[in-house]
Specification:
Three copies of one chain form a homotrimer. The first copy, chain A, starts with a strand and ends with a strand. The first copy, chain A, has 147 residues and is mainly beta. The first copy, chain A, is built from one helix and eleven strands; from the N terminus they run E-E-H-E-E-E-E-E-E-E-E-E. In chain A, strand 7 and strand 8 form a beta hairpin. Chains in contact: A-B, A-C, B-C. At the B-C interface, strand 1, strand 3, strand 6, strand 7 and strand 9 of B face strand 1, strand 3, strand 4, strand 6 and strand 7 of C. Strand 1 of chain B pairs antiparallel with strand 1 of chain C.
């Protein structure tokens, strides 16, 4: 376990509008507001795009991801962490549970899903933490490095 | 995307007791404590009531919701945002993943589900944000309006 | 409903490393850092261990839990609350949605699941709250007592 201690900064209440793409729109918002590290909590309805639903084989390194398309509007909760990449660009790592008519797809919202009519986000900025998402050569993942 | 910037206020640690109805009991609590805007994070076991599991057709406006009943006790995580309606009454918009024996129903807890034995909530008040849930004529939803 | 009012303390950004066991590693971290009460928000990939997926019968007291094993790596979001037991040891009550290839298991991570390659946690300390997890004779659960 690696960790860094910080403190809370600004808190943003956000409403996504129809067609806003997650995680892109939140990354752009973070960039615009000079937010480096943040916790993101989302609830709403998402549609389209793809969700990464696990590595094909748990023990295969580097892992090959499984993707599933999202067709119709799905009720969603999602949790994410914003941190900068090596160039300082904010990257949102966000996982969500997307459900429809009693079935639930849980995965990483890396490849873009869109807000439907109604989607709310609470973004809490975290100050005083030195963190970067850097490429891990072995796994091919960008992992959170805490300084 | 619409947004408003605020700051954290009071933090409440809450234990729901058997039979407490979500979202009602949290809305009443917010009213009693003069909480206008808040982030709600819930974990516990819920039962009974109904969950909205998506619009019947993604592209149909106004949308007609699908509901599913919840029978037995379900392990749950849920995320919500409290904001006042046009009359100032606190409304909790909350989505949750409710699972039992390996099946998971993800939806909006609008129609009332009850706490079973064990249910914990962290409610974080957000200050300095002007927000209201107002009727959107086109969709028939009450959407978060950020001033 | 029982409640206690507090305020936010330290915020920790944590990266779990492969093989770190939840909830144990977070309980040890809380102990080391003298954290009494905290909110925990996790996203990442978990594997192995077991998840409690509900009581066998909703109305049977004391309840007998259902457990399911987790085999391969599962994309996950989880929400938890840290509070001390009667001896002051931090106990993390944490529920998570664990998904793989479109199926989702929602449950209580009490019996230990392990971090796979990538797992991030935001831990928010809550100050000024007197809470303890104490045995409830009737149900056999340790419930959050708020003083």
């Amino acid at each position: 376990m690696k960790y860094a201690e910080g403190r809370l900064g600004r808190v943003f209440v956000i409403r996504l509008e129809e067609g806003d793409v997650v995680p892109d729109c939140i990354e752009e918002f973070a960039s615009e507001k000079n937010i480096s590290i943040a916790h993101v909590s989302l609830l709403g309805t998402l549609m389209e795009g793809e969700v990464i639903v696990g590595p094909r084989k748990t023990s295969e390194i580097p892992p090959r991801p499984m993707d599933l398309p999202i067709y119709e509007a799905h009720e969603t909760i999602a949790t994410g962490v914003v941190a900068p990449d090596k160039d300082g660009k904010p990257i949102l790592h966000i996982h969500g549970a997307l459900g429809r008519s009693g079935n639930t797809i849980m995965g990483c919202l890396r490849n873009g899903v869109k807000a439907w009519v109604c989607c709310e986000v609470i973004l809490q900025e975290i100050l005083g933490v030195d963190a970067k998402r850097l490429l891990d050569e072995k796994t091919g993942f960008t992992l959170l490095n805490l300084g």
